[in-house]
Amino acid sequence: MATGMGRNAIAPLLVLNLIMYIVVIGFASWCLNHYINGQTYHPGFYPNGATFYFLMFAILAGVVGAVSKLAGIHHVRAYRHDTLGTNASVALITWAITALAFGLACKEIKLTHGRGWRLRVLEAFIIILTFTQLLYVMLLHAGLFSNRFGPAYRDPDYGVGGPAAEPKGTRV
To answer: Whole-model pTM above 0.90?
Structure first.
């Protein structure tokens, strides 16, 4: 099967997003830990009404995103039709959760001016991940519709295991 440009375009973006989602998990965990411990006026952390919800969606986006990228690694290794559909749907769900965290990051930026550097880094990573994940989803969905961008369902050899054989057993 000719791989086209799909695998070459998706693999680096997949690795980049995986690393960024792991960084988001780290920063969101640190901020959530300080929020739960009541250290809300820590020098690197200044909360407002949107902070708790932003941290919850950021850590959720990080965990779901990292797991989605592990499924994406399996798809890039196998690069088959059946892994494409499942990976595209998981990536779309991940993008939706990241977009919710993006909206809360925008609200967090608007409400608070004296944020610490860790919270600002987390907001920046969520904003960047929203767009890189959208690009990843668009590349995967391009593979759903065309052989040129990936293993499409319209390939002529999809589902063909070999020459047709006579069925075994008795026929009535």
So the answer is: no
